[in-house]
Every structure is written in structure tokens, then in C-alpha cells.
Amino acid sequence: MGHKVSYNLMKTEPATTETLAAWKELGLKYRTYLKLEKRLSANTVISYMRDIRQFALYVLRREACRPTEVTREGVEQYMAHLYECGAEKTSQARALSGVRSFFNYLLLEGLIDESPAEFVPTPKAGRQLPDVLTLDEIDRIMAAIDCSTAKGLRDSAMLEVLYSCGVRVSELLALRMSDLFFGEGYIRVIGKGDKQRIVPVSAVAREKIYRWLDVRKTMLKANINEECLFLNNRGKSLTRVMVFTIIRQAAARAGIAKSISPHTFRHSFATHLLNGGASIRQVQEMLGHESIITTEIYTHLDREHLRETLEKHLPV
Question: The sheet that has 186-190: what strands, in order across it?
């Protein structure tokens, strides 16, 4: 059974009498709609009304807005809040179903132009989590790379960027020289849908990239794209398969039996961030997830610890 949902974090300006009246009025009309038009059973109506009551309480304490003013972001924040408070995936899905039903009613009544819950992803139960590398295993993999060669310097820099920046393998391979802003301490990442995001780059990653850039100069030829950051030994762009192979060979030399891929570094990065006190929204921004629901796969840490870090880092 999931933890009881608490709304103690939601302390904002109190809702106005008009706002409270709007929720009450539409709530009563919605209940009548469920009973008379949808012809749902008494227990089902009670369940739907409980879901919308909990959602209304969240909204009133956080934003104090009317039902017709709720945004998609507000619904996503509510779903993230349920997860952070320990609600099971089935409970999250049921809650979202109840919220969707309420806004579909408002849509039918012509009170809103579109439902803010329509495109919010439904939490899926039973999703398998990928392996996570410990800090010691990360160090062992890095130590297994021979940095006395140009290839080793490149591989060390690539794996450091994969881990310390949490980028996807496609984003790693798309990095260009013009994406490096070391003076400001970040790199520019081109993610899915060509969306750009700014990601901080650690001092260790910068140092490894600098060492790679020194030998990279000797690999440049007239017929290659000099903008590509990571090159193979022929001065061409790397492929995804090559990166997978590099990682698995390094893991084997380090004596790590886990199933390792570029995504393992990204997952470990997010896990270590959360474990270190970062909020789920900070991790969402770093990973470039459009929806915070997607970021939930990385929040499989102890829920009490996660709740404590959220209370510490998120605005109240």
C-alpha cells in the first residue's frame, strides 16, 4: 500500500471565496453529471469525487486558481507530487483518470477549450529499471581506459561526458566544437526534436575534453568535418555501435558484470543527482525530458529520502 498523500508543501496565498465557490459549484454539477448522465454506480461516483477533491485541494493550496484556469503543467505537477508522496502507479493512473474525466466534463459543457489533462502520460506499472552503476564502478570503468593513447583520451572524455552531463548517446555524437562553452561552464546539447538545452560541465569533464582536443588536432584531415567533437581513428564521426562497444569493453576490463550501455551512464547520473539532494525537476531539466512523468523512472530511491530532499530544494 502506498504512503498517505500529504499536501503540507503546498503553502501559498489562501484561495479567494470566489475561487472556492467555483470549485464547489462545478464539483456539484460534475457529481450530478456522473450520476444522471453517465449513470455510474454510487461507489464509482464516490471514487471519482474523491479524486477530484484531492486534486482541487492540491491546486487550491499551490496556485489557488479556478477549475477553468488549470494548465497542463499544473496537472503534471500534481502527478509528480503523487509519485513523490509514495502513491503506487495504479493509484496515480486512477487519479489521472478521475482528473481527466472532470476536465472532459468541463470541455463538454463548453467551459474550457481544451483539457489540460488530455496529453499527460498515464503512469505505467511494471516498468523495468535499467542497471545503475555505483560511484566505485564508474571510477573502475574510467580507470580501465588506457589514456596513454589518442583513442584512450577520446574514450575517457566521451564516457565522462556521458556520465557527468547525463546526455543520450545520440546527443553525445551530435556534439560540435561550437557547442563547448567552457568559459561559462556548460555545453549546448541538441536533444530530441532538435530542442536545445544547456548542461553544466564538470571540471573533470572539461580537463578530459581539453586533453582529447590536443590529440584531436593531429587527426584532422582536409576531407572531414572539423566541427564534430569526437572522431574515430580515421577522422570520421563515431557511430552508436562504436560507443556501445567502447563501453562494454571498458566494463569488461573493469570486471563489471552488469549489462552496460550508454543509457546506463545517463541513468546513473540521474540517480546520483537525486541521491545527492537534487529535486526531480532539476533532474528533468538536466535530462531534457519534456514531461516530468518521464523522469519518474529515475526516482526509484527511498521515498522518505526523496520527500526530504524535495522539501529542502523545491519552493514552498
Answer: 180-181, 186-190, 196-200
Round the average pLDDT of the chain to a whole number and report it.
82
Q: CA-CA distances (angstroms) from residue 255 to 137, 162, 248, 259? A: 9, 20, 10, 12
**Residue 50 is among the residues annotated as catalytic for this protein:** no
Among 263, 281, 300, 303, the one annotated catalytic: 263
Name 29's Cβ contacts closer than 8 Å, sequence gap at least 6: 109
CB burial class (10 A; 0-12, 13-18, 19+) of residue 34?
buried
Q: Which of 50, 124, 127, 192 is catalytic?
A: 192
263 among known catalytic residues: yes
Average pLDDT over residues 288-306: 59
pLDDT per position as a tens digit, 225-267: 568 899 888 778 888 889 999 999 999 999 998 888 888 898 8
**From the candidates 168, 206, 208, 267, which is the catalytic residue?**
168
Residues 6+ apart with CB under 8 A from 97: 51, 122
CA terminus-to-terminus distance, the chain: 27
* Residues recorded for the chain: 316
Active-site residue, 53 included = no
* 24 annotated active-site: no
Which one of the listed residues 94, 267, 272, 289 is annotated catalytic? 289
Q: What is the pTM of this model?
A: 0.55
Number of H-type helices and E-type strands within the chain: 13, 3
What cell does 132 get? Answer: 545503475
Please write the tens of the pLDDT for every residue from 39-97.
Answer: 888 888 998 999 999 999 998 888 788 999 999 988 998 998 898 888 888 889 889 99
**What's residue 10's pLDDT?**
35
Point out the catalytic residue in the list 94, 216, 266, 272: 266
